[in-house]
């Protein structure tokens, strides 16, 4: 896809409550009114879920 300018947010679970909680990375695209363009979850065992927006149509009024 075409690269877009995005704000990347990362949440890394810490402490006793983290357990098997995944690290969460979220990219918010400026061109999409800061809607998520990508989301990646990475679990401590190495499993990864990676979702990327392919296309988006915004109905701006």
Attribute tags:
single chain, about 60 residues, mainly beta, four-stranded antiparallel beta sheet
General description of the model:
- With 61 residues, the protein is mainly beta.
- It has one domain (6-52).
- The protein is 0% helix and 43% strand.
- It contains no helices and 4 strands.
- The chain has strands at residues 6-11, 23-29, 35-42, 48-52.
- Strands 1-2-3-4 form a 4-stranded antiparallel β-sheet, with no helix packed on it.
- The model has no long low-confidence stretch (mean pLDDT 91).
Question: Topology of this protein?
Answer:
Elements: E1 6-11, E2 23-29, E3 35-42, E4 48-52
Antiparallel strand pairs: 1-2, 2-3, 3-4
Summarize the structure.
With 61 residues, this protein is an all-beta fold. The protein is built from no helices and 4 strands. The mean pLDDT is 91.
């Amino acid at each position: 896809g075409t690269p877009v300018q995005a704000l990347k947010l990362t949440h890394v679970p810490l402490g006793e409550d983290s357990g098997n909680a995944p690290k969460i990375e979220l990219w918010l695209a400026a061109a999409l009114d800061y809607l998520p363009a990508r989301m990646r979850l990475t679990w401590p065992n190495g499993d990864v879920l990676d979702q990327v927006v392919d296309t988006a149509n915004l109905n701006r009024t």
